[in-house]
Amino acid sequence: MILKAFLIIFGCVFLGEIFIALTGLSLPPSVIGLIILFGALQAGVVKLETVQSLAKTLLDYLVLMVVPACISIMQYLDIIRSDLGVLIGATAISTLLVLIVTGKSYEWLRHAQKARHQGRTNQRGNS
Fold first, then answer.
1. Residues 37 and 6 in one domain
2. Which residues, other chains included, contact 46 with Cβ-Cβ below 8 Å and sequence gap of 6+?
3. Is the pLDDT of residue 90 over 90?
4. Of 14, 31, 60, at which residue does a domain stop?
5. How confident is the model at residue 68 (pLDDT cuts 50, 70, 90)?
6. Which of 60, 81, 102 is the last residue of a domain?
7. Alpha helix (H) ranges present in 24-83?
8. Residue 40 CB-density burial (10 A; 0-12 exposed, 13-18 middle, 19+ buried)
9. Are 33 and 12 in contact (CB under 8 A)?
10. Average pLDDT, stretch 79-84?
11. pLDDT digits (tens, 9 = 90+) for 6-45
């Protein structure tokens, strides 16, 4: 069961690699692989039970996968130090933008949901 899950997950990542090679997009192949896996799960081509146990195991050890990337960043501390103000500013602005857009999106969706619910209630009352 675990081997099948590995084959499915890494098969999707491999398809992402092929897609990136053919299109020349500047996206990480793993992201495309995740999108392919998501599509396969949504379409019912891959059953959730097949990959769920492996996904939980991988998430348990996610920290071990992030540590090498963090160590690699240490090699570029001089570049980071010289542009620290720009990095902090960009991070702060992007965080604020994400918070504002998320909040406004929620307000808009909630308002639309309430309006739709009131429309249904009015239709029932008129019947």
1. yes
2. 8, 37, 40
3. yes
4. 60
5. confident
6. 60
7. 29-43, 48-60, 62-73, 77-82
8. middle
9. yes
10. 90
11. 999 999 999 999 999 999 888 888 899 999 999 999 999 9
Rounded to 5°, angle at Cα 19 from 13 and 22: 145
**Res 62 pLDDT > 70:** yes
- Structural domains in the chain (count): 2
Provide the token pair at 108.
Answer: 């808009």
Residues 76 and 56 grouped into a single domain? no
Q: Are residues 52 and 83 in the same domain?
A: no
Rounded to whole angstroms, how far apart are CA atoms 28 and 16? Answer: 8
Say yes or no: 82 and 116 in one domain: yes
Are residues 102 and 52 part of one domain? Answer: no
Range of the domain at 5: 1-60
Take residue 10 and report the two structure tokens written for it: 């890494």
The pLDDT assigned to 9 comes to 92
